[in-house]
Structure prediction request, 702 residues.
Amino acid sequence: MPAALSQSSVFSFPDFSPTATLSLGLTEAEALSIGAGFAVASNPHPSGDAYLQATGASAQAGGVFDGVAGLYDLTVAYFDETDGVSMMEVLVNGTVVASFDWDSTTGDAIVTAASKADYTVTGLVLAPGDMIELRGARDGGEPLRTDYVEISAAAAPSLGESFVIEAEDLQIVSGFSVKSNGAASGREMLQHTSGDEARASYSVQQTGSFDLTIGYFDETDGVSWLQVLVNGAEVASFDWDGTGGASIASRASLVEEVIEGLALEAGDTIELVGQGDGGEPLRVDYLQFTSVEPGASGPSAPATLDLWYLRDGEVYVALNDGSGGFTELATGVTPDGTLRAVDMDGDGDLDFLDVAVVDPFPLPEATSPADEFVFEVVTTVYENDGSGGFTETTSDSTSFVAGLYGYPASEVDRLWQILQTGDAGDIDGDGDVDFAAVSLIAGRIMIFDNAGDDTFNLIELPVPDEVYELSQGGNFAGLADMNDDGKLDLLLSVSWNFSSTLVMINDGAGGFDPVGSYGASDDGNSTEIPADLDGDGDLDVLFVAISDGGGIYTYINDGTGARDAAAVAPSFPESELNGIGFLQIGDYDGDGKLEMVGASIEDASAGLDPGLRLFEFPLEEGELSIEVASLDPSLVGELTAQGDFDGDGDIDLILVAEESADTFVLINDGTASFTAVPTGLDAFSSNYPTLYAGELGDLLVA
Prediction:
């Protein structure tokens, strides 16, 4: 808000919590929430044939801004009659940003067209949730007749002038949470708290040339990194490697990075993409836009996402040409076990971690409960050089002991029953990549703790009593920050026996405490996607139940990781449904809310035709629903990956066609309408190859 106009109000009203919304454009005054002293009156001269007028000496009305963060002009239209000198204040979040007298002498003493007037507050920074108030005092025969409030995008500031957008007012796409900090501008900041990557976006409101200054906390106990994109094009990427500040987010560690001469247009999307490291969890404070002379260098070529996948046992990458066309390249990496794509060396691109069990079969005969066997786990890291080349840098061996007598050893005949690799991430918060796993034969949860050099120390945890026992059908350890404390928690899924997923909260000391569970069938869960489905700031889980009770369900988090008992966990459809296939979640239409897409659901008995479905998650009176918003019958198959593949800032999809196994990029027009474009990749031998991409971060820099 304009600093020169910030002041205290001359009025004293009780606490006011308006429910009316103020959107971009015109809002009639009579649609505002009335706090005190105003009443609605009819008249043919105002917009909408009605206005607010004071019924007492002072009056108050207002609403909550529901637009995107940005620089705006706010206009108040009113009737400035000649038989009094009323006055009005405009407040944002309780601070006066404008105060003006209604002192015209050229109109009429009554409400006529000649008495119409308006007052504009220019260059006002507004963010979603800001409370806008009108406070005023009537005078004489002029009863503070207020017609409407209009909000419009402000003009670009004059050369050398600036405006600041607080980081906490950006749209959070993934991984970021808003945290309080007294050293931050506005006493809040964005902090990376979950997932492999944090992402937030800002929709540009002004056309012009700007120096963009990013304020952040460059702490000394880690080397985080941040990438800045404009419409998907990388304009800056830098490491947070300061050594002269402090190890905490304080004024000593607050620094700035300036990106000069960005040529921006209204409607452009600026994205911040990054990852925390060690004790430095990527804390972003603000974005400052300073108007400069045009002509400085603008955005570089798009840094669009690539793909990776297995073909005949070898890892291939598909390099993006910037428009969604791909060139296939063999990497020479032939994994022996389960592959995870994670940034092992902290340089901003994805490397490969291969976790393999040395084949122990046939297992020796056991004659007593004392008989044990040593199982060997080999981890291999392949580092990415950023141009499609991968080099084996570390190979490490870790072992564990398991008994061979009786169940479950008597039923174990596959390597994944010895060790089933789960998700990888920084589980213990020390800045390197660990991974979780489950061993059926040992009856244990396994945490492989990275020693800092990509060798691993094994921590074995007992299976909680809530699970009873692990299953021959599969046991998976997922990772997600379910209580928003910056630590990765466990989602322990067990199929066939327990047939559910147990949410286990990381206590930061090597333990995990069960707080809740979810499941809807006797054969367990398949697809599980942590996402903020209800928009309350914590991660919920969308999951697919299979077999009896099959369908799409939600687990609504109460903020601690436990199930919100008051929230509805709907299913789609109401009847049993199997063969759902891959689902993806993201903001596909740019409305700031999450949607879900799937292209392989088909069930004639349930009236479900094949095609690409867009689902929405409407929330009414605290109850969440899953509803189909659209169906495109021309797009059928598996949606195996998503990300920005054409550099325009929205989320595209990768589709593997149902019968041919041909692969397509589904190009999003920004409104969740997709056009299929062939990837140009060679044919696959399997019917449904799995391609990985954007949700894991940039694999390669094109």
Notes: The radius of gyration is 29 Å. Confidence is low (pLDDT under 50) at residues 1-6, 296-302, 694-702. Residues 166 and 286 are 4 Å apart (CA to CA).
